[in-house]
Amino acid sequence: MSKPLRFDVSGLCLHAGGTSAGRVLFDGLSFSVAQHERWVVLGPNGAGKSSLLAAMAGVFARTRGELMLQDRPLSDWSPRSLADWRAWCPQFWADPFPASVAETARIAMHRGAWWTVQSDDDGDVQRVLDELDLATLAHADVRQLSGGERQRVALTTALLQGAPLLLLDEPASHLDLAHQQLLLGVLARHAADRGAVVASLHDINLAWDLASHAVLLDGRGSAIAGTRDAVMTPPRADAVLGRPAAQGSELVMSALMRLIALLFGLGHAAAIAAIHLDDAGRQVDIASPPQRIITIAPNLTELVYAVGAGAALIGTVDTSDYPQDAKAVPRIGNAERLDIERIVSLKPDLILVWLHGNPGREVAQLEAAGLRLFYLEPRRLDDVPRAIERVGALLGHEAQGRDAAADLRKALNMLRETHANAAPVTVFYQVWSQPLMTLNDQHLVSDVIALCRGRNVFGALPQLVPQLSIESVVAADPEAMFTASEFATVGPQWRRDPKHRAFATWSRFAKLTAVRRGWMFAMAGDVLNRQGPRIAQGAAAACAALDEVRKERGR
After folding, report:
1. Mean pLDDT of the 334-361 span
2. Cis omega (within 30 of 0) on the bond before 98?
């Protein structure tokens, strides 16, 4: 499964019962699920949520439309091959025979004889049982479990199937408040590390906290799909569900705290903390906007300034050089080493951490010191404006975060529309020359290239930052080559530069298309590589470079 996950729904029409005699559930529904996305399906009872998930699982008949998994019609997949890519957890299950929780979970790991036990099965089963708070029930009979316990067993089997795409029909049903929050973390981690999630939910607060994208079925034959913020607007949620979504904030009030307040007669200020879900799937309680903030990556620094909270920064890393005010913030280390003693002495009330970009051992030391960490890592272009909104809500600058995110979305959408019908250009993005390294399609830079109608020639490789041989690049023969460079903060953020020192290796390969035509470009590394608010500038630079290729080749 080296290719990133993609599931396309196009012009889908479903009827109740899966036959044309049934009423129309919805018609013309189209959306695409990509790697790392978290989709929620919302709608009143009978709107077709379960039917949509079953159709995506390949077990419910569609009236018309296309369902494509990995660019291949769903109907072309054998059941066994399909099971490698998607796990479907229906709303109801039956347990006619006695079996323990562990035995039920273990069955999900096998495509052939269910009784065949592999040497590492028990370790995998134990890990997921621990994750879903079922370890003490491993030997219990599944027929004697409560509804919530049995629901968590069903989720365990879905996770142990090992498929990147989870299709979950009301996974939060029967769960108590604590286990609903546990569920959010489990699903967020799966999407971040393994693939994507599509789940139907009834609780709009849970849906808002989980979702990056949403499908809203109105129960009258219509449907809409898109990013969470575009779909789950208060007017739509009120019209379809009879209650508004708390749009623009991830400060979803903890239901557990509300319950405590009711039980003990406490006021909101005394009993309620804001709950934020970070990109590591961790719940972070913030009682009031942080006043002493440290960032340990330059993109995180830019996010803080983008929402107007720069005055609260008390420390950052050496590479935080934008905006200008960031250069005056005290330094607490760099990408290789953090000054743990200095960070602790500054007494921050929040540290923003780049999920996969900071030294793990030192971050663990910060956590062990009792400091509050919040992990962020936008993986796709659409995640960046959402990250701005999240940081705004986190730091008490919600309105400024919302405005900055709206401006970024507008800029990215303009580029998308401009290049929607542009002719493709094959691209090699060179991260490093010795050793020779690139990025795959799971990296945000590849998302930028795709927005400009470029195609990353090494996008399908499984590693996020794969190491290459020179021969593999020669065989791919890309039309354009990109590399990152330092630029001024004003003016064009790209230049055509075949003589750039990073491209020295390629001068002896005169037959390569990029070398022969001189389509070798140095891009502003800060605006293109940083997962931050200037990404629209980086995208505009990449698009301008590829437009020059199109102009010179005549299309």
Report:
1. 87
2. no
